[in-house]
C-alpha cells in the first residue's frame, strides 16, 4: 500500500532503537524525510546511517535529551516544519506508592506528559497552516489497564491521554490528526532487561523467564518493533485522516477489556 507520505518531513523521538526505531524505519520505507532523536550519539548515528542506506531518504540525527528544554529546542530547530511527529521517551522507574514524593511526580510529568505536549504545541501551528499533519504518541497499555508498580507512568501518561482527547478534536477540522499507540510487551532491550531480572529473581534461565512471560500473552509471543512501526506508519498515512483521538493497543491481547 502506498501510504502517500513520500517527501513528508517526520520527527521521531527516542528513535535509535526499539519501538522508536521501528517507527522511523517504517516511515523512511514510505519515503518520508527523517529527523531522528535520541540521547546516545553513537547509537543514533548508526541507526541514521542504516536507514539512509536501506531506504535512500534524507536522515538528520540530533543527539539530545528531548525531555529537557534545551534538548527540545535543538531538536525542533533542526527539524524545521514537520508534517509528522512521533513522540516517545523512556518511562519513569517502577516502585510503590510510598516510594515517591512530589519531585518524583514532577519528573515523571515532565518526561511523559509535558515533553510530548510541548512538542505537539510546537508542531501544530505549522501543520494547521499547511492543512495536514499527523501526531502519534507512544504511550503504554497502562493507560487502559494501570500497572500497579508503574504508578508514576500511569499518572503521567493518563494526563497526556486527556490532553490528546480534547486537542485532537480541536485540530481535526484542519486536516491534522493526533492519536496514541499503547504498546504491551515487545521484543526490545527493555524486555530483555525485564526477563533477565525475572530469571535472576526466580532462579531460572533467561529462556525460561521469557517463555513464561510470552505464555501470559494471548498471542503467545512478544510484539516486534517492525509491526509496531507499520501501525505507526499507517496512522501517519494519507489513509488515516478519519482516525482522531484514539488509543490503539498493540499488546497481543494482554489487556482483557471489551472496549
Principal-axis shape equals globular
- How many helices? 8
Distance between the termini: 29 Å
Percent of residues in helices: 40-55%
Which sequence of SSEs, written as H and E, runs from N to C?
EHEHEHEHEHEHHHE
Query: Per DSSP, what share of the residues sits in E-state strands of 2 or more residues?
Result: 5-15%
Overall radius of gyration: 18 Å
Describe the largest sheet.
Answer: 7 strands, parallel
Low-confidence stretches: none
> What's the overall average pLDDT, rounded?
96
Category by helix and strand content: alpha/beta
Strands across the major sheet, in which order? 3-2-1-4-5-6-7
Give the strand tally: 7
Task: Write a brief caption for the model.
This protein is of the alpha/beta class and 259 residues long. It contains eight helices and seven strands. The chain starts with 8 loop residues before the first strand and ends in a 9-residue tail after the last strand.
Question: What can you see in these coordinates?
Answer:
- 47% of the residues lie in helices and 14% in strands.
- The chain is built from 8 helices and 7 strands, in the order E-H-E-H-E-H-E-H-E-H-E-H-H-H-E.
- It has a 7-stranded parallel β-sheet with strand order 3-2-1-4-5-6-7, sandwiched between helices.
- The radius of gyration is 18 Å and the shape is globular.
- The relative contact order is 0.15.
- The model has no long low-confidence stretch (mean pLDDT 96).
Amino acid at each position: 500500500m502506498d501510504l502517500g507520505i513520500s517527501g513528508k518531513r517526520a520527527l521521531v523521538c527516542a528513535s535509535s532503537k526499539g519501538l522508536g526505531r521501528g517507527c522511523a524505519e517504517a516511515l523512511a520505507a514510505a519515503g518520508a524525510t527523517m529527523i531522528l532523536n535520541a540521547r546516545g550519539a553513537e547509537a543514533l548515528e548508526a541507526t541514521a546511517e542504516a536507514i539512509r542506506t536501506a531506504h535512500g531518504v534524507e536522515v538528520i540525527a540530533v543527539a539530545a535529551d528531548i525531555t529537557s528544554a534545551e534538548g527540545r529546542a535543538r531538536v525542533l530547530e533542526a527539524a524545521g516544519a514537520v508534517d509528522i511527529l512521533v513522540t516517545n521517551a523512556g518511562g519513569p522507574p517502577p516502585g510503590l506508592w510510598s516510594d515517591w514524593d512530589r519531585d518524583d511526580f514532577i519528573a515523571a510529568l515532565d518526561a511523559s506528559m509535558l515533553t510530548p505536549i510541548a512538542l505537539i504545541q510546537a508542531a501544530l501551528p505549522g501543520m494547521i497552516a499547511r492543512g495536514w499533519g499527523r501526531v502519534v504518541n507512544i504511550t503504554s497499555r497502562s493507560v487502559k489497564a494501570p500497572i500497579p508498580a508503574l504508578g508514576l507512568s500511569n499518572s503521567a501518561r493518563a494526563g497526556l491521554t486527556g490532553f490528546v482527547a480534547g486537542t485532537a478534536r480541536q485540530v481535526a477540522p484542519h486536516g491534522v490528526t493526533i492519536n496514541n499507540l499503547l504498546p504491551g510487551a515487545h521484543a526490545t532491550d527493555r524486555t530483555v532487561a525485564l526477563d533477565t531480572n525475572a530469571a535472576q529473581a526466580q532462579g531460572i534461565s533467561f529462556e525460561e523467564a521469557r517463555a513464561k512471560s510470552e505464555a501470559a500473552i494471548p498471542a503467545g509471543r512478544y510484539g516486534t518493533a517492525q509491526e509496531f512501526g507499520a501501525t505507526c506508519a499507517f496512522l501517519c498515512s494519507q489513509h488515516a485522516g478519519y482516525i482522531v483521538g484514539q488509543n490503539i493497543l498493540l499488546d497481543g491481547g494482554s489487556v482483557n477489556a471489551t472496549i
